Amino acid sequence: MHNNYTIQVKEVLKITEAKAKELGHPYVGTEHLLLGLANVYSGIAGQVLAQNEVKEVEILRLIHELVSPVEGADQPKKAVWSPRLTAVLKQAEAEAQRFHAKKVGTEHLLMAIIQEDDCVAERILITLSINPEKQRQDILEGMGLDPKEYGEEGGGDKPGAAAGAGGPGQR
After folding, report:
1. Which residues, 6+ apart, have CB-to-CB distance to 6 below 8 Å?
2. Full-model pTM
3. Tens digits of per-residue pLDDT, 11-51?
4. C-alpha–C-alpha distance, residues 95 and 105, integer Å
């Protein structure tokens, strides 16, 4: 699975696991992925998050507010990914295929997060008043694509986009 990831995504995933460990969480979730994305400015997602003024300090503040502390939990030797994080990673792979990318990039990870209906990372972005549709447009522009070609909410009718494949903006 990691062979299909760009260098930036591999870096994001390392940071993601490190942040979960730093916070003392016994799992790695979408909130940790958001922290990883915000820390890798060489990827499209990091640039889009910075452009939308999503800062690590604010993400951390909201993680502390939204995630119950895990008192006395043993740290597993190997990072345990939450089911929601696993779903986001699978959706990111689908996004990469949808856009005919050879590898999953940070833009696909962020696109998957903003499509996920109930994950901590999405709740953090909404709490920060980040408009998912604007982020989707910013991601498409960062990919060198015209957001108008991909339509409003629902991924548009772009040739090669599979119907019902969970395109950008679908909820």
Report:
1. 43, 103, 104, 105, 106
2. 0.83
3. 999 999 999 999 989 999 999 999 999 999 999 999 999 99
4. 9
